[in-house]
Design a protein that fits this description.
Layout (H helix, E strand, L loop, with lengths): L2 H8 L11 E2 L12 E3 L17 H7 L2 H17 L4 E2 L24 H16 L4 E7 L10 H6 L10 E3 L2 H8 L1 H8 L4 E4 L3 E2 L2 E2 L4 H11 L5 E4 L8 H6 L22 H8 L5 H17 L22 E5 L4 E6 L9 H14 L1 E5 L14 E5 L39 H11 L3 E5 L6 H9 L2 E7 L8 E2 L2 E2 L11 H11 L3 E6 L15 E7 L6 H9 L34 E3 L8 H6 L17 E10 L92 E11 L5 E10 L11 E10 L4 E9 L5 E3 L4 E3 L3 E8 L5 E9 L2
Parallel strand pairs: 2-3, 3-4, 4-6, 5-7, 5-20, 6-9, 13-14, 13-15, 15-18, 18-19
Antiparallel strand pairs: 1-2, 7-8, 10-11, 12-19, 16-17, 21-22, 22-25, 23-24, 23-28, 26-27, 28-29
Helix pairs in contact: 1-11, 2-12, 3-4, 3-12, 4-7, 12-16, 13-16, 14-15
Length: 814
């Protein structure tokens, strides 16, 4: 490949300069088309005839590993049918550090183990369908406020000098925020997206310690690092720091201008020796290698191209719509990517994601035989938004919640609202149904509630990505209160109706303290964003067609001060700092450490049946060792040929062959002046990192996801689960470990396994857990290695982070 051909694969062609949200240049000589990168983690964005799948948070709430894989498989299948080459998902950051974080709904809950399992299963499912997966966002992107300088200046804030810096300690980095990325690297993820924010005061996409050392050296990541859209802030520095592909190609402050840190400037940097061709070869090899390394994926040909346009739903349109340039061409072929498999998977995830939090008096499931003849359904969350189901990036917030807003949002092909589904089931049972969407004038609602035998109040909260501003919420939520006067609506109805059921649909934790102990609030269910089948799934649970089996993927607190707040007041500081003071004590770990009683704990969720767990057995498979063995072999190193740098005249723009399109980013030089403007001889690489690809790895590395010994099974845990109730149901057995504090203190317990089984009444099944070397390890910042402490490890099989069913011990001696 020539230098310009290589550069063409590393640099996006510009926003709107291709059918997808991100498009690389092509290599016509080799028959390689522009590579298509498309959101996202919950389905195919910006197109029609696709499924709007439940969110990552919903998948996490199922606590069902097999279902997480099937969801990823269904999402990958639809991306493939639409001609996408690289899907921008799954999301495994944010970690859920901040309850009001705008994008928590995209990822898999507030625990690194849960995030890692969900992320890895999704990667495997997506890539099994022939599309490359991209794990995002690397790393520490825990709030939307101040994530980018430009967004805040546009919204009337004082101009920032830099984006917010997530300041993360070494142990928290390894045990919390890096943990799920090790899982997806182990699963063979093709790409990792670096985030907008700074990490320890260096932008993530030019942070050599993050990209070169932690990701590519410690985790031995073999794929490519792509920038979030506009997250690149330098040219040469970002290349040397480990960025392999820039998207969408432009400099963020000069959108649609064709100005790029790379493109022609990267070509010039190679010709003048600022960037070695060996590094350029490494970038391109990393981009191409996954197409060959992953058995189910193939390098696309010129026939394997997208059949849709992200920029219009019309069949025909201008070739470059944002630049108002080019002929009218066909843009959309309206290929229907949906299938029965997609529908079944999406509906199953939605059903299993619903969490039953309260059911006093067992008033659920709804039964006409128990005297329920008239039902009131109330709340904006029960019906459609007056503006429709498909506002741009799903920023419609005056009706049912299907997702948060932003780049992870998907067009709804249809939506089954809660009222629609509840009304259908009520009619089928001969039950009268009333409905009110009024949330401010509550006189009529009071009257309807007074008549009702049972009231169902559907309330919600919304959040999303920082570039969308909705009702004074810049991505992150202003608070944890219900939207649309939800608290007062619940109290007003509960004062009149003795059987009030509250359905909370939300992108994250909410405060329930104003009404949760009201004597007439007899039942509460929580639903993360459930996609297009939201109403059907909720109605199925309410009427007992589905026995709820979801578990909370975060903690619901009683007091707001128990949550980590969003930083939204800079106090004149134009370089915002976010110190992650919670360290390794994320979510339930913090509550357990300080013995704080939550309203509902992590992993909590009720069922319409009851279960018993017994016969705990712990078996040693391999004897543990305090320290990791030094990896004897490194991953195979591909041979990077140091090609000769030819005459720069070879890279001049071919004006005799084509005219440049405005705003399109090309790899070509416009003159032969390639003198070096930057002397990078003294570039400071991270301590221990060798840019010449060492033959010996660091102690924590040596294989995909880290030292291969970390993935060795040390113990097997087994127990028996019995359904002692009268209904078929699903039970999630959760394994938590309490570490000794021989060297460093640890949380009282951490999640290290979960298994879900479905049982008929009276039936039993065994659940098995593998405890890996990494599951018993802590990161020692002083020695820079994973260690297993000597002492007693307590093993808890639990139905939540606080309700222990069985307890055992593992003693690890010197």
């Amino acid at each position: 490949m020539s230098i310009t051909e290589k550069v063409n694969l590393t640099t996006g062609t510009g926003w709107g300069s291709g059918p997808c949200v991100g498009n690389t240049g092509s290599i016509p000589r080799l028959g390689v088309p522009n590579l298509c990168l498309q959101d996202g983690p919950n389905g195919v964005r910006f197109t029609d005839f696709v499924t709007h799948f439940p969110s990552g948070l919903a998948a996490a709430a199922t606590f069902n590993k097999g279902l997480m894989y099937l969801r990823g498989k269904a999402i990958g299948k639809e991306h493939k049918k639409k001609g996408v080459h690289i899907a921008l998902g799954p999301t495994i950051g944010p970690m859920g550090l901040k309850a009001a974080g705008g994008r928590n709904w995209e990822s898999f809950g507030a625990d690194p183990y849960l995030q890692g399992v969900g992320g890895a299963a999704t990667v495997e499912g997506m890539q099994d369908e022939g599309v490359l997966a991209t794990a995002r966002h690397f790393i520490g992107n825990e709030q939307e406020h101040f994530r980018q300088v430009g967004e805040w200046e546009e919204n009337g804030w004082d101009k920032l000098e830099s984006a917010i810096s997530s300041n993360i300690g070494d142990r928290a980095m390894h045990e919390v925020y890096l943990w799920p990325f090790a899982d997806v690297v182990r699963a063979g993820v093709a790409s990792v997206m670096c985030s907008y924010n700074q990490v320890n005061n260096t932008y993530a996409c030019e942070n050599s310690y993050l990209l070169n050392f932690l990701l590519k050296e410690e985790l031995s990541f073999q794929g490519f690092v792509v920038s979030d859209w506009g997250a690149q802030h330098s040219g040469v520095n970002s290349v040397l720091a480990g960025l392999d592909m820039t998207m969408p190609g432009e400099v963020f402050d000069d959108w649609l201008t064709g100005k790029s840190y790379w493109g022609a400037l990267l070509t010039r940097s190679v010709y003048n020796g600022t960037i070695s061709q060996k590094r350029l070869n490494d970038m391109v090899t990393r981009i191409l290698a996954p197409f060959f390394a992953i058995e189910s994926v193939a390098l696309p040909t010129e026939e394997d191209v997208p059949n849709f346009s992200s920029w219009t739903h019309h069949t025909y349109g201008q070739e470059f719509p944002y630049q108002h340039f080019g002929p009218i061409v066909q843009k959309n072929w309206h290929v229907d990517a949906r299938s029965e498999f997609s529908d079944n998977t999406a509906l199953t995830v939605a059903r299993e994601a619903i969490v039953l939090l309260k059911n006093s008096g067992h008033h659920l499931p709804i039964d006409k035989g128990s005297g329920i003849r008239r039902i009131l359904v109330a709340g904006k969350g029960a019906g459609p938004d007056p503006n429709g189901f498909n506002c741009r990036d799903q920023r419609c917030v005056d009706g049912v919640l299907t997702s948060g807003w932003g780049s992870a949002a998907v067009n709804n092909p249809f939506v089954i609202t809660p009222y629609e589904a509840i009304a259908q089931k009520a009619r089928d049972r001969g039950i009268m149904i009333d409905y009110s969407s009024s949330v401010w004038d509550l006189d009529n609602v009071e009257d309807l509630a007074d008549y009702a035998d049972l009231a169902i109040v559907v309330v919600n909260t919304f959040s999303g990505e920082g570039y969308v501003y909705v009702e004074d919420n810049f991505g992150d939520r202003q608070n944890l209160s219900l939207w649309h006067n939800g608290d007062q609506l619940i109290e007003t109805i509960a004062d009149k109706c003795k059987k009030t059921v509250v359905v909370v649909t939300s992108t994250g934790p909410v405060s329930m303290e104003k009404w949760i102990e009201h004597k007439n609030v007899v039942a509460v269910i929580f639903a993360p964003p459930l996609g297009q089948f939201v109403g059907q799934a909720i109605a199925d649970v309410l009427f007992g067609d589905t026995n709820p089996s979801g578990k909370l993927p975060f903690t619901l607190a009683r007091k707001k001060q128990h949550y980590v707040p969003i930083i939204d007041d800079l106090g004149g500081d134009r370089n915002p700092q976010d110190n992650f003071d919670r360290d390794i004590y994320l979510d339930y770990r913090f509550f357990d450490k300080h013995n704080i009683k939550p309203r509902f704990e992590f992993g909590f969720g009720l069922s319409y049946t009851s279960f018993k767990v017994c016969n705990l057995k712990i078996t040693e498979i391999n004897p543990p060792s305090e320290y990791l063995p030094y990896p004897q072999e490194y991953l195979p190193i591909y041979k990077l040929v140091e090609d000769d740098v030819c005459d720069p005249e070879d890279a001049l723009f071919p004006h005799d062959e084509m005219d440049p399109a405005p705003g399109y980013i090309y790899p070509y030089l416009y003159n032969e002046n390639v003198r070096s403007l930057d002397d990078q001889d003294d570039y400071e690489y991270p301590r221990g990192y060798d840019p010449d690809q060492p033959t010996a790895p660091v102690l924590a590395g040596g294989g995909l996801g880290g030292n291969p010994a970390l993935w060795e099974v040390l113990y097997e845990v087994c127990a028996e689960v019995t359904n002692e109730g009268k209904l078929k149901g699903g039970y999630v057995s959760q394994l938590y470990i309490e570490f000794p504090s021989t060297i460093l203190p640890s949380p009282p317990r951490v999640l290290r396994g979960f298994e879900k089984v479905f049982l008929e009444p009276g039936k039993s099944a065994k659940v098995y857990f593998n405890i890996l070397h990494r599951d018993l390890s802590i990161w020692d910042p002083e020695s820079q290695q994973w260690i297993i402490q000597t002492g007693t490890y307590k093993i808890y099989l639990s139905s939540s982070s606080r309700k222990v069913e069985l307890c055992g011990e593992i003693d690890i001696g010197c």
